[in-house]
Design brief:
By secondary structure, the chain is an all-alpha fold. The termini are far apart.
Length: 87
């Protein structure tokens, strides 16, 4: 029970850490101060972490949920960046 609660908490924290920037960029339609390199490097890191976790631990739900959903958050921010970079 505690293990699942901790897994849920760390997933929410890791996945949601990018969303304030994403929401701000969507609201203002401005990505002037966004470091796109951070998000691109994060995507590569999450892809590597996903592969590592599968090879090392198998299909661990919490690890994979964290890496995959955080990777999608980073990828979404990259999309937002390229959508609004010229505005």
């Amino acid at each position: 029970m505690i293990e699942n609660l901790l897994g849920f908490i760390y997933n929410v924290c890791f996945i949601s850490c990018y969303w304030p920037q994403i929401i701000k960029s969507l609201r203002t339609k401005s990505v002037k101060d966004v470091s796109i390199a951070l998000f691109i490097i994060s995507i590569v890191g999450y892809m590597s972490a996903t592969a590592y976790a599968i090879m090392k631990f198998g299909l661990d739900f919490w690890l994979l949920a964290n890496y995959v959903l955080s990777g999608f958050s980073s990828a979404f921010m990259v999309w937002v960046y390229y959508r609004y970079r010229n505005k």
